[in-house]
């Protein structure tokens, strides 16, 4: 019996048990099981991991930074962004990964090979996505409401500006990584600026899923192609699953997870 979980607070909304259990079933791993675990204090993640006898876990809001700090070793893009969404027990050590941004990249690559990317927002998700695109040799610009979070991007060789300083160029892809539109109907940048940006951008993507954001609605009203955050969710799950069950077939698991997600 191998047990896996998703740590979060709240966690009752998480689709992770659904998509991972469907994948275990598909692979005939009947003794593998994936549950939800609500953890209030992120400092306790390691203890809970051990007490439950877990083999692996995913980590969601607000514990990704805690997971980064408590992992015995952190690998890949998680090192750059300081946030871990996947914990795996390997040879008695807790190894931390982040599959969110690689998942975004995998998903968006199914739509095309985008070279010039504008990322709206400068939080953890923006950092991760910007890093993955840069590592793939793409040209990345970051646009944020306020200045403070842009320092990281400027120091790491990205073009980065606030709304006031920004002059729109041509982009292949515009990605909204802000939480604007999650709880309300606001746009991630003022409408006149967005209008300007979208004049020469054929594709818009959002990291939010489960509701159509004002940003994607606006892009659709201009007949642009769009992708919401559900594909990213599926692919971060596929890449995490591959850490849990290294022998799994990526495209097969993606199909299983997609089916389970929309069931
Ligand atoms: P952070 O808190 O780290 O960053 C939030 C960013 O959004 C900041 O740049 C902030 O700007 C900006 N922002 C917030 N509200 C507004 C607004 N009203 N107008 C303009 N800008 C705004 O968040 P994360 O990066 O951790 O998460 C961002 C989103 O990504 C969340 O909605 C989360 O649900 C989603 N997500 C989706 C995943 C998936 O699998 N689909 C995986 C991981 C995250 P400022 O600096 O000015 O405050």
Classify the secondary structure makeup into a structural class.
alpha/beta
What oligomeric state do these chains adopt?
single chain
Average pLDDT taken over every residue: 96
Order of helices and strands: EHEHEHEHEEHEHEHEEHEHEHH
Distance between the ends = 26 Å
Which features does this protein show?
11 helices, binds NADPH dihydro-nicotinamide-adenine-dinucleotide phosphate, globular, six-stranded mixed beta sheet, alpha/beta
Descriptive report:
With 263 residues, this protein is of the alpha/beta class. 39% of the residues lie in helices and 21% in strands. It contains 11 helices and 12 strands. The strands form 2 sheets. The chain has a 6-stranded mixed beta sheet, with helices on both faces. A 6-stranded parallel beta sheet has the order 9-8-7-10-11-12, with helices on both faces. Helix 5 crosses helix 6, helix 5 packs across helix 10 and helix 10 crosses helix 11. The longest helix is centred in the C-terminal third of the chain and has 15 residues. The radius of gyration is 19 Å and the shape is globular. The chain starts with a strand and ends with a helix. The structure holds NADPH dihydro-nicotinamide-adenine-dinucleotide phosphate. The site of NADPH dihydro-nicotinamide-adenine-dinucleotide phosphate (NDP) has 25 residues, from helix 6 and helix 10.
């Amino acid at each position: 019996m191998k047990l896996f979980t998703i740590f979060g607070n709240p966690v009752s909304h998480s689709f992770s048990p659904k998509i991972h259990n469907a994948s275990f079933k598909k692979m005939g791993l009947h003794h593998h099981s994936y549950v939800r675990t609500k953890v209030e204090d992120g400092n306790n993640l390691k203890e809970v991991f051990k007490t439950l006898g877990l083999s692996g876990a995913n980590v969601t809001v607000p514990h990704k930074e805690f997971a980064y700090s408590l992992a015995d070793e952190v690998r890949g893009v998680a090192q750059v962004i300081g946030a871990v969404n996947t914990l795996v027990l390997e040879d008695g050590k807790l190894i931390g990964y982040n599959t969110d941004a690689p998942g975004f990249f995998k998903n968006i690559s199914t739509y095309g090979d985008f070279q010039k990317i504008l990322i709206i927002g400068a939080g953890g998700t923006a950092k991760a996505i910007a890093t993955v695109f840069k590592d793939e040799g793409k040209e990345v610009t970051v646009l944020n409401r306020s200045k403070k979070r842009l320092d990281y991007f400027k120091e790491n060789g990205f073009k980065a500006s606030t709304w006031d300083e920004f002059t729109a160029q041509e982009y292949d892809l515009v990605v909204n990584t802000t939480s604007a539109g999650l709880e309300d109907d606001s746009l991630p940048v003022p409408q006149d600026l967005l209008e300007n940006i979208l004049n020469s951008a054929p594709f818009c993507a959002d990291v939010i899923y489960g509701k159509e954001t004002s940003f994607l609605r606006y892009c659709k009203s201009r007949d642009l192609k769009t992708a919401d955050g559900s594909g990213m969710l599926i692919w971060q799950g596929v890449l995490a699953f591959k850490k849990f069950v290294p022998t799994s077939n990526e495209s097969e698991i993606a199909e299983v997870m997609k089916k389970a997600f929309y069931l």
